[in-house]
Amino acid sequence: MSTDDKNRAIAAAILPLVGGAENIDSVAHCMTRLRLGLRDRSLVQDEALKALPSVMGVVEDDTYQIVLGPGTVARVTPEFEALVAAAPRPSADGLAAQGAAIKAARKARNQTPFKLFLRKIANIFVPLIPALIGCGIIAGLNGLLINLGWLPGVTPALAAMASGFMALIAVFVGFNTAKEFGGTPILGGAVAAIIVFPGVAKIDAFGQTLSPGQGGVLGALGAAVLAVYVEKWCRRWVPESLDVLVTPTLTVLVSGLVTIFGLMFVAGEISTAIGDFANWLLANAGAGAGLVLGGLFLPLVMLGLHQALIPIHTTLIEQQGFTVLLPILAMAGAGQVGAAVAVYFKLPRNGSIRRTIKSALPAGFLGVGEPLIYGVSLPLGRPFVTACVGGAFGGGFVGLFNMLGDKVGSTAIGPSGWALFPLLDGNKGLGETIAIYAGGLLVGYAVGFVATYFWGFSRELLEEFDVETEAEAVEVPVAAGGPVAPEAPEPVRV
Questions:
Q1: For the stretch 175-205, what's the b/e string if a residue is b when 16 or more beta carbons lie within 10 angstroms of its beta carbon?
Q2: d(CA 58, CA 165)
Q3: CA 99 to chain CA mean position, Å
Q4: Is there a smaller number of Cβ atoms within 10 Å at the N or the C end of the chain?
Q5: Is 27 helix (H, G, I), strand (E, B) or coil?
Q6: What is the DSSP string of 280-310?
Q7: At 434, is the secondary structure helix, strand, or coil?
Q8: Are the beta carbons of 294 and 335 closer than 8 angstroms?
Q9: DSSP 305-328
Q10: Catalytic: which of 30, 135, 234, 388?
Q11: Count of CB atoms within 10 A of residue 405's CB?
Q12: 3-state helix vs strand vs coil in the chain, percent to 5
């Protein structure tokens, strides 16, 4: 079976288990998950869906999220969208109306304005991650070649490839922001482009000369949001016969003037303050800050609040060339891996959970934590807490070296675990940076293991789960994007 046929088969297997095409309201994906907006949640066959060989797990939030793994999800989503588009739709409006009512009721119960705002922010920046990763790896390769003195004729070209996207990232942020807030994307990009235009260096605002890029992604975000509101105002008041000329002109003119003579300065000050605060925090309280950040990151992910960090990461990368926060936060995954290994040894008779761990560990080492979180630690309860302890100590280790003057950063966001090694950068040599990050991972693994092995299980928990299972002899299939976690046990209170 070809790769395309395999991805089409995965999509075809998932579709009927989520209620069919008529039950799908929206389709999207992130780095690892297929995100579906559903009309009627009760039509989803959760257990059958979890049992599919390609499905690592499911997560329910504002959308129904099916964990397929990196790489796989990007290939399955277009096939899934094609199946949904090709399926016949019911002629009656009853199901759609009922589904819309159910969806509205669920959203009213489960969502808050703050979380909705964070999701909008995530939707702006997440599509930029592939370019950040690609350009970040090229930048790392270029730095290595320069340090070694190899291929001097090639390194300028690599520098151009690595830096081109970052030089224009404000335009992409403006485009996505206008799209997400309901405006015309190209107008958002046009206004944001003012920020990176070299000619702004001839303009004085607030008693200082502006510099190209001042305000960065925060300025672009603010400029594009302003452009959306100006555009919407124009659509309401400008006559239709003049709309095509007046609306885009006023949108760019008004929001552009505010951007030049206000937002660029304000956003520039905020961006500088974010960078200064991050550097000050790690320089003066690095170990403590790393302990807190590494320990709390998994709960933040569970609540969806980690999305608030995306603009901060992007701002730091734009300012300094790397974000010092991501390597610390990546230690949460190390604690998760250590905890999973401890669970493996604590439950020698539970073949089902042990096979889940064996199949999910390779993805865990590469920073894909969903199979271990939703298939092992979270359902068991205490091991999730002890995994956070491992992440806290790993983060504290990396933070300690930041406090001693050895900055460890990442040139892109998205990957973690071992997958972050090609993206590492810092203020010292690459070898020292890699050694500190690797040391943090080892600390996270070790503490996560020890904490889970000795304190992760109560007597009742061991009696319930350290038993023979029928799944002992069943092979766990491996999906195209990574290992697959079988059905998780029922949640247990800590």
A1: bbbbbbbebbbebbbbbbbbbbeeebeeeeb
A2: 34
A3: 29
A4: N
A5: strand
A6: HHHHHHHHHHHHHHHHHHHHHHHHTGGGGGH
A7: helix
A8: yes
A9: GGGGGHHHHHHHHHHHSSBSSHHH
A10: 30
A11: 10
A12: 70, 5, 20
Q: Give yes or no: 30 in active site.
A: yes
Cα dist. 456→219, 407, 459 in Å?
46, 33, 10
Sequence-ordered alpha helix ranges (H) in 51-128? 72-86, 94-110, 113-125
Calculate ∠ Cα 301-69-22, nearest 5°.
90
**Spatial CA neighbour of 379 closest among 412, 347, 405, 420:** 347
**Residue located via tokens 């070299």:** 198
H-helix or E-strand spanning residue 33:
strand 33-38
- 8 Å CB contact between 380 and 339: no
* Contacts for 466 with CB less than 8 Å, ≥ 6 apart: 346, 347, 348, 349, 350
CB neighbour class for 471 (10 Å; exposed up to 12, middle 13-18, buried from 19) = middle
Which residues lie across from 425 on neighbouring strands? 409
For tokens 């929001």, name the residue: 255
The Cα–Cα gap between 453 and 447 comes to: 10
Residue entry with tokens 């009853």 = 94
CA angle 379, 381, 383 (to 5 degrees): 105
Round to whole Å and give the CA distance between 421 and 141.
12
C-alpha–C-alpha distance, residues 131 and 456, integer Å: 40
* Residue 384, C-beta contacts closer than 8 angstroms, at least 6 positions apart: 298, 339, 373, 377, 378, 494
* pLDDT tens, N- to C-terminus, the chain (494 residues): 677 888 899 999 999 999 998 889 889 887 788 999 888 888 999 888 988 888 888 888 778 999 887 778 888 999 999 998 887 654 444 444 444 554 455 555 556 777 778 888 888 998 898 898 899 889 888 888 888 889 988 999 999 999 999 999 999 999 999 999 999 999 999 999 999 999 999 999 888 899 999 999 999 999 999 999 999 999 999 998 899 999 999 999 999 999 999 999 999 999 999 999 999 999 999 899 999 999 999 888 777 778 788 899 999 998 888 999 999 999 999 999 999 999 999 999 888 888 888 888 988 898 888 778 877 888 888 999 999 999 999 999 999 999 999 999 999 888 889 999 999 998 888 889 999 999 999 999 999 999 999 999 988 888 888 877 644 433 333 333 333 333 333 333 33
| 8 A C-beta contact, residue 465 and residue 350 | yes
Amino acid in the structure at residue 98 = Q
Distance CA 114, CA 273 (A): 23
Integer-rounded Cα radius of gyration of the chain: 24
